[in-house]
Amino acid sequence: MINLTELPVWQHLASHQAEMGESHMRDWFDQDAQRFSRYTLQTQEILFDYSRNRITEATLKLLFELANSVQLSSKIDALFNGHAINITENRAALHTALRDPLHTPIMLDGENISIKIADMRKKMQQFVTDIHTGKRRGATGKSFKHIVNIGIGGSYLGPKMCAQALKQYAVSDLQLHFISSVDKTHLNEVLKHIDAEATLFIISSKSFSTLETLTNANTLAGFMLAKFGKAALSHHFIAVTACAEKALQFGITEENIFPLWDWVGGRYSIWSAIGLPLMLLIGEAHFNEFLAGAHALDLHFKHTEFNQNIPVILALLGVWYMNFFGAKVQAIIPYAHRLKSLISYLQQAEMESNGKGINIHGSIIPYATSPVIFGEEGCNGQHAYHQLLHQGQHLIPVDFILVAASSEENEISHQDILLASGLSQAQALMRGKTYQEAYEELTAAGLNPDYAKALANHQIIPGNRPSNVLLLERLTPRNLGALIALYEHKIFVQGAIWQINSFDQWGVELGKQLLPTILRCVKGEAPTQPIDSATLGLINHYKKISKVL
Length: 549
Ligand code: F6P
What we know:
The protein is of the alpha/beta class. It is built from 22 helices and 13 strands. The strands form three sheets. Strands 1-2-13-12-10-11 form a six-stranded mixed β-sheet, with helices on both faces. The protein has a five-stranded parallel β-sheet with strand order 6-5-7-8-9, sandwiched between helices. Helix 15 links the parallel strand 10 (about 330-335) and strand 11. Helix 1 (about 10-20) packs antiparallel against helix 4 (about 55-70) and helix 15 (about 340-355) runs parallel beside helix 20. 6-O-phosphono-beta-D-fructofuranose binds near residues 206 and 505.
């Protein structure tokens, strides 16, 4: 059993941080013209610039020692080899196997799961072809024009984010819609935009028991049954699930059920049949490129020395700030409109995975884990919360995700500004502005010296605020696949260091457990479990005012 905070290297990192004090990155850049090239790594898909971090060679050495002290290499092997690393559910986490183009045999409980994966992919491909060619049609014979994904969490965020990001690679004119929350407004909004005769509904739910998803699915099935009778279900509804039984009970026909397995976590499932809406949009070839990009990153992660390993370094930098600088928040800022949903995708990926307070040994964790992930597409955040990043009192490391080529054809004028905006934010965070610089600027602009002296105080920007730049050449399926896999592995490495099981989510389960009792009470039935007075008070008030409405 590893007691992290008692490891000598943990203590060394703490004293190294204290010795580093306020040493300023601005000075390091001024003294070392090679800092960018020293701290930049590149794969075919991503350039990773980590030069604007409060690190020296000594810091990195200690961080790699920390990784070795928790036996990171053997944990990586356990991940790829399908060990039951999700110890509380006794499951493997084999999302990496889903994107192996060679379908290398991998045995799980005496079964070669690569055969199942290949079969699932074939089924997806055939289905996509049938929809695209019009072989599969709705109950009245119309070909499909709309796809409605009914799912939440990992059964929603991945397909939605990727479909937005890769819209440019669409090979069909299918319109994708997503219904996630149980708020009927959302469902009704979608209904306004579809033609029921030409709509395919995908019920995406690993468990096929998530209340929001089933409520929406039942409502939509009722709506379609009323229009087209029994044929509605067999023609318009398919399911992606690990619980085929429940989908069958719902009325989905066997050939319309796409499998999922317990060794694919919801937030790691975009590579599985949960990615079906994406494959319907971008076609099989692009979907395969998406998988290939993720696989390339898997190989990088698995085979590269830690000091050249992008996810390992990205993760260690996060640990450095969280556990030794007290940073609690991580901003992720994609300077690409098409990546605007990446933030909520990564919120689930990071916070549901590593937002834990109990370690793999069952003990309370005495150090911070998982940062709070927030962000906004660039440049929007600059005109909102970036003020706090520059002059606020919190240290908030930033990942800037930049894309060199625009998604728009022959576009350069906007793109140059977009890229320059991201880079200037990274520079401003790093350099800041001294009192002297502010004073000189103000007097040069003609301000009287007394006023300039007073105003210069307000314009001091401390700088020394860390950021990484992840630069993609363009937003292709391959590069997006690699980017997502990079974050997945970053999360894995941090979980390994923090001694966390990154693949369960018991905190989420509690809400699901409490809901039925509260729902009964909301509906006016007697609660079967004790309910606190605040909840009861609000339920009573809700009943009063909802009647009025
Ligand atoms: O939010 C909790 C969670 O269990 C996620 O991990 C999962 O992605 C989501 O609910 C949806 O679950 P399901 O796919 O089983 O409906």
